[in-house]
Amino acid sequence: MKPFKLNISQIPIELKFILDLLKEDFQYESNRASYEEINWDTFIKLSLHHRLYPVIYLKLKQLKEGIVPSFVMNYLSIQYKRNTLKMLKFSAITEQISRLLTDNQIPVILLKGPALAHQLYGDISHRTSGDLDFLVPIEKLEETEKLLVGQGYVKDEYIQTVLNDWKWRHHHFTYIHPQQNIKVEIHWRLNPGPGKEPKFNELWKRKSRSKLTHFPVYLLGKEDLLLFLISHGARHGWSRLRWLVDIKYLLVEKHLDLKRTLLMARIYHYHRSAGQGIYLAKSLFNLELVPEMERLTKAPSAKKLAQQAVFYFENRINLHSDPVPEDVANYHKSHLFALRSMQQKIIFIISFLYPYPEDKQLLPLPKAFHFLYFPLRPFLWVWRKTRKHALS
C-alpha cells in the first residue's frame, strides 16, 4: 500500500514559503526556483493572517540581502516592533491581574499571552496575542468579575443562557477595558462543552511557574498545555498556523512526560485531535517525533483529519469575523463533529435535548415555568426550522 502523504499541492506558494521558513533545515538556495513567483503582498497578508509575522520577520532577516523586497522587510519590521510594545503592555497587565486575583485568594492560571510566548519561544516578541486568557475555578467567577469591574473592565454580555446552560456550553466570559483597549477572557473551562475536562484543582497541582514576571504567575503544566493548545487549534481548524508552530516548539524544545500525555489524551478524548495536530506539525515542519508521539499519528483518523484541515490553509479561512460564509460554516461544523470521539458524539447529540436560549426567544415563558422547555424542546426545534425555511 502506498504510504499516505499530506497533500498541500493546492495551498498558495506564499504559504509554502512561510512553511519552509519555519523548518529547521530550511535552505533558500536549494529551493530558489520555486519561490520566484511569490506575490509579496499576498505573503504579507498571509503572515498577518496566520499571526506569524514576528517569527517570519526574524527568519527573513537571516537571508541574504536582496532576496526579499525592502518594502516587505520594512513593513514586517514595523509590525514586529508594534507587537513587541503590545506584548510588553500585556506583560504588565498580566502581572497586575494575577496579583489582583491572588491577593483576593483566587487561584489563577494563564492560558496564553506573553507568558506563553516567553515559555515557548524564550522571548515575548516572537509571538502575537490578541487578548489575555485566565483560568479560574467556576465558583470564583462572580468574585473575579467584581474585581475586574472595579478596575474599569466592562463585561461583554454576548452570552445568552437558559437553565444555566452557560456553565457547560460556554467556557469563558469576555471583559473589555475601554480606556486601555485591553480584552480579557476569564475561563472556567479550557474548551466549550459538552465534554470531559480536567478539574481546576488537577490543573493547579500540575501548574508551572512562568519566569517572565517577578510576581508568581502560573501556566498550565507542559502536558496539559500541549493538549490544551492542540484542542484549541483543532477547534478552530488550525486556521491560524501560529497554533501549529506552538505545538512544534512544545514537541521539540520541551521535555514532556509522554506517558502522562498519552494517558490524559485517552481519558479526556483528545486522541483524535492530538493525532491530527501532531501529524500536521510533523508533516508541515519535517519534525522527527519520538516513537510514543509517532504512534498517535499512525491512526487512519489522524491522517484523514489532517488532510481535512488543509482546506483552511488553501482558502485562508477566517473563523473569527462574522459573517462566516455558509459553505465554510457547514464544512467547519462537519469537521468539528469528525474530531469528536464516539462517546463525545453521543453526548453532543444528547445535548440537543437540553433547551437553548433560542427556545426562550421563540416561546418566552416565566422563569418558574422554564422546566417546560425540556418537553417542548423537539417541537420548538421543528417550529424554528420551519420558520427559517419559510423565511428563506
Descriptive key words:
18 helices; five-stranded mixed beta sheet; 7 strands; two-stranded antiparallel ribbon; Beta Polymerase, domain 2; NTP_transf_5; alpha+beta; Renal dipeptidase; 392 residues
Describe the structure.
This protein is α+β, with helices and mostly antiparallel strands and 392 residues long. Among the domains are: 106-220, Beta Polymerase, domain 2; 355-391, no CATH class. It has 18 helices and seven strands. It has a five-stranded mixed sheet. A two-stranded antiparallel sheet has the order 6-7.
Give Rg in angstroms.
22 Å
Q: What structural class is derived from the secondary structure elements?
A: alpha+beta
* Corresponding CATH architecture of the domain at 106-220: 2-Layer Sandwich
Report the uncertain regions. Answer: none
Biggest sheet strand order reads 1-2-5-4-3
Major sheet: 5 strands, mixed
CATH topology of the domain at 106-220: Beta Polymerase, domain 2
Q: How large is the share of residues in beta strands? A: 5-15%
What is the helix content? 40-55%
- Please, what is the average pLDDT? 93
CATH class of the domain at 106-220: Alpha Beta
Number of strands: 7
> What form results from the Cα inertia axes?
globular
Return the string of H and E elements: HHHHEHEHEHEEHEEHHHHHHHHHH
Q: Helix count, per DSSP?
A: 18
What gap, in angstroms, lies between the N and C termini? 48 Å
